[in-house]
């Protein structure tokens, strides 16, 4: 039995991801390393991984990437091995030789409500055994976060449309390691063919927040999947982590999505989950008193003491600046430096109820960006917000 895993680690690196010359090489780079007895754990939960608008200068930019998760199973038993059997077609399939191949999928109609509910229960069980909350949140956000409000045409506008399942988008620097999130969810997708990838990604993200103790997210479903890799957004739409002017950069990127200052700060509060490892990201300490015992692989530096609990500790700890074992990045610190951001950061540090309310609304808004719903009004599961 594999040991528990604490999510995937988003890392900052000073070089571009390895060049991938073929689909087979992409799979082999992910899975040909020695298999560990447990999934390596986790860490830094950024709103989005770093990316640059200039793909030609990738070798010189910082990129946030997820650490590789080692699987105790053999290549033969990897979750992707069932992809080619989907009734609706799949984005990535595995050949008998172990290579990825991109396969166009027909556009899907609305997800089935009963299957959505069942899939949610399976996601809850996955979270209990793998502690993969951060990487599932990241998966949902990266699929939605490519949205450009200035482009009307679907799916060219980007957003929550399931495009992140395709190899061409998985290879974007900002999405390094998210193949591991697909592996974690693939058996659920196989089981519930009536749930679109776009819905599954957002369902997993919202469920991860809720199961970590966060607010109930007022979600709706029925997102339509893009049909092929030619409908993926170009690289460079996701925000950077360490720009020269953090406040200006955050506004430039999130305003393009149609989000405002309050929503930027509220979404930043999800950094209460996760940790960072210096050997993989260049940020944080190798180990602290809060991370030395895991769960999952020990080590790294977290933003909060209880880094698998969703609360308002992120804001409290940044404001206090009294614990050297807790991580604060430039894009975190700016929330208490910029006058407009500071209004909300101060409020959230004092009032968790207000933070939860604003976060839930911002998360739901993010999860709907760019989505095409069928039916147009979407599907609301009958339990509703608590």
Automatic annotation (TrEMBL):
Gene3D superfamilies: 1.10.520.10, Peroxidase, domain 2. One of its GO terms (molecular function) is L-ascorbate peroxidase activity. Its EC number is 1.11.1.11. Residues 276-292 have a biased composition (Basic and acidic residues). Its main location: plastid. GO terms for cellular component: chloroplast. It comes from the Eukaryota. InterPro entries: Ccp1-like, Haem_peroxidase, Haem_peroxidase_sf, Peroxidase_I, Peroxidases_heam-ligand_BS. Its cofactor is heme b. The keyword Cell inner membrane does not apply. Plays a key role in hydrogen peroxide removal. This is L-ascorbate peroxidase.
């Amino acid at each position: 039995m594999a040991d528990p895993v604490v999510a995937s680690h988003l890392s900052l690196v000073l070089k571009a991801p390895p060049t991938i010359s073929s689909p087979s090489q992409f799979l082999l780079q992910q899975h040909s390393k020695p298999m560990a007895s447990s999934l390596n754990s986790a860490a830094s939960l950024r709103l989005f991984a770093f990316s640059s608008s200039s793909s030609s200068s990738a070798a010189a930019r910082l990129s946030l990437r997820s650490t590789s998760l080692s699987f105790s199973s053999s290549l033969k038993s990897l979750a992707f091995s069932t992809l080619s059997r989907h009734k609706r077609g799949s984005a990535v399939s595995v050949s008998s030789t172990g290579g990825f191949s991109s396969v166009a999928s027909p556009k899907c109609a609305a997800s089935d409500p009963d299957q959505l509910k069942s899939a949610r229960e399976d996601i809850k069980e996955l979270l209990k055994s793998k502690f993969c909350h951060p990487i599932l949140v990241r998966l949902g956000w990266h699929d939605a976060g490519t949205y450009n409000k200035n482009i009307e045409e679907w799916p060219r506008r980007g957003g929550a449309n399931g495009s992140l399942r395709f190899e061409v988008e998985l290879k974007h620097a900002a999405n390094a390691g998210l193949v591991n999130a697909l592996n974690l969810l693939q058996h659920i997708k196989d089981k519930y063919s009536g749930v679109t990838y776009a819905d599954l990604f957002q369902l997993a993200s919202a469920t991860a927040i809720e199961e970590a103790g966060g607010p109930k997210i007022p979600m709706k479903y029925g997102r339509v999947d893009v049909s092929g890799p030619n409908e993926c957004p170009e690289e460079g739409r996701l925000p950077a982590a360490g720009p020269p002017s953090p406040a200006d950069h955050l506004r430039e990127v999130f305003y393009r999505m149609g989000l405002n200052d309050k929503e930027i700060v509220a979404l930043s509060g999800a950094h209460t989950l996760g940790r960072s490892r210096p050997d993989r990201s260049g940020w944080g300490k190798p180990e602290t008193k809060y991370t030395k015992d895991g769960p999952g692989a020990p080590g790294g530096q977290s933003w909060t003491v209880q880094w698998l609990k969703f609360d308002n500790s992120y804001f409290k700890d940044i404001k206090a600046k009294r614990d050297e074992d807790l991580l604060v990045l430039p894009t975190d610190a700016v929330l208490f430096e910029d006058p407009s951001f500071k209004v909300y950061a101060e409020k959230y540090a004092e009032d968790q109820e207000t933070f939860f309310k604003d976060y839930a609304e911002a998360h739901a808004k993010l999860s709907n960006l760019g989505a095409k719903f069928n039916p147009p009004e979407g599907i609301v599961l009958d339990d509703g917000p608590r």
